[in-house]
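User: Last request for today: this protein with (2R)-2,3-dihydroxypropanoic acid, please.
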Amino acid sequence: MNRPKVVVTRRMPQEAIELLEKEANVYVWDSEETAIPQTVLLEQVKDAAGILTNVADSIDKEVLDAAPSLKVISTMAVGYDNIDIAEAARRGIAIGHTPGILTEATADLTFALLMASGRRVAEGAAYVKEGKWKSWGPMLLTGQDVYGATIGIIGMGRIGEGIARRAAGFDMNILYHNRSRKPDIEKSLNAEYCSLDSLLERSDFVVLLAPSTPETYRMMGEREFKLMKSSAVFINASRGKNVDEQALYEALQDGEIWAAGLDVFDEEPVSLDNPLLSLSNVTALPHIGSASIKTRTKMAVVAAQNLLAGLAGTELLFEVKGDTV
Ligand code: DGY
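Assistant: Here's the final one, the structure of the complex with (2R)-2,3-dihydroxypropanoic acid:
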């Protein structure tokens, strides 16, 4: 019997590739840092039954049209806004993702970004390496207190809860805004549910974790940044499309908010011309929320398992059903 073909759009941990190779002929775009060119992707998927992808590839109608034998798309991510879900579903293509697995690693990185932005860690590190450090100064590189501050979490899913647990360890007051209330978290972490506007007005750190949907598109814009305290720090670890970057730039530039920590951008990789990168009060990271060795390896293995289940026509470990981040 012919073995099915699988297209892996990026170099992956070997465990995942070996799993796939047991059942399929595997094509791998063997690069860590560059995305598979569209022409190569379109050519390779022609006879593919499965695609193992990631947040950097757009699996849109053009790709689906080029892949008439496709049975399953599996992404090594919790978010799947890079996939045309409606179109894939219409064609009966199963879609897998990796929720849960990356929760703690992403919460760690998000909290690290919060601390780095509040306490100017990246700026301080650059200051030393650039030879600017001439003397200890009473107000040199002073930042915002994290311990005991008020954190506002927008999007209380798994990762939001992970952030709330970490915030509780820093004795922070926890506010959250979410589509639905989370009575367990309110009780166990003393978190307070509030409207988005009230959260923005009261928080010292605003952490955005909402998934990317038509409803969350540019949900943080001029009006929202104006509501925030001038001493507040904004953290985005969700998707760049949730933020109006021009409005964020202006808010930072005009001192309407104090700093921002960004792991995600509207366009990725972010262009060096993006004005946000010119600001010393922006800490920018290259979308590495889940990037611990253990977590990324597990995500790749689970994505491979999802893909094999899809090829076999059996239930995926984690199938895209809607509410995930
Ligand atoms: C996700 O999983 O959606 C992250 O953005 C990448 O790990």
